[in-house]
Amino acid sequence: MSGWTRAVRSAVPGGMLAGVVTSSAAALGGRQQTGSAVAALNAPSHIVHGEDPARVERPTAGHTLVGLLVNTAATLFWATVFEKALDSIEGRHKPSAIWATAAGTAAAAYVTDYHLVPRKLRPGYERRATGPALLGIYAALALSLGVAASMRRGWVARR
């Protein structure tokens, strides 16, 4: 199995977990800052709609479902980057390597999302979740990746 194939397969559980956890963090941050959890979940759908779906404050298939799918695709991508990066580290099976790589991946995601890609490809969360809430979304990404990798290695108690 090639390195990328292994990375993609390993990334699925962490990427799916990250999709749920980062969406939850966005909803919580959006609710706390602007009073609308749904608007924050709708925000990533601007990539498809080309408008400002963060202004839509009710759940819709075209905005909320698309926003969740866009976010999940992004978290699967970053989980693959995480797994590939982890493969290249000597001592990659140590907890410190996993957590450092998870934090580095989340930092790379933030820099990419808000400083490298065109505005059209940004997540859109910044329209409804700023400052601490935005930090919470990327912290949720790091935590999800680290927990999933740790679980695969049996370092987190399973019930």
Secondary-structure blueprint:
Elements: H1 3-34, H2 37-42, H3 46-49, H4 61-87, H5 95-116, H6 132-152
| H/E series | HHHHHH
Structural class per helix/strand content?
mainly alpha
Helicity level: over 70%
* Continuous helix count: 6
- By DSSP, the count of extended strands is 0
Question: How is this structure best described in words?
Answer:
The protein is mostly helical. The protein has one domain. Helices cover 70% and strands 0% of the residues. It has 6 helices and no strands. The longest helix is centred in the N-terminal third of the chain and has 32 residues. The mean pLDDT is 90.
How would you briefly describe this protein structure?
With 159 residues, the chain is mainly alpha-helical. It contains six helices and no strands.
Question: Which descriptors apply to this entry?
Answer:
159 residues; 6 helices; 70% helix; mainly alpha; elongated
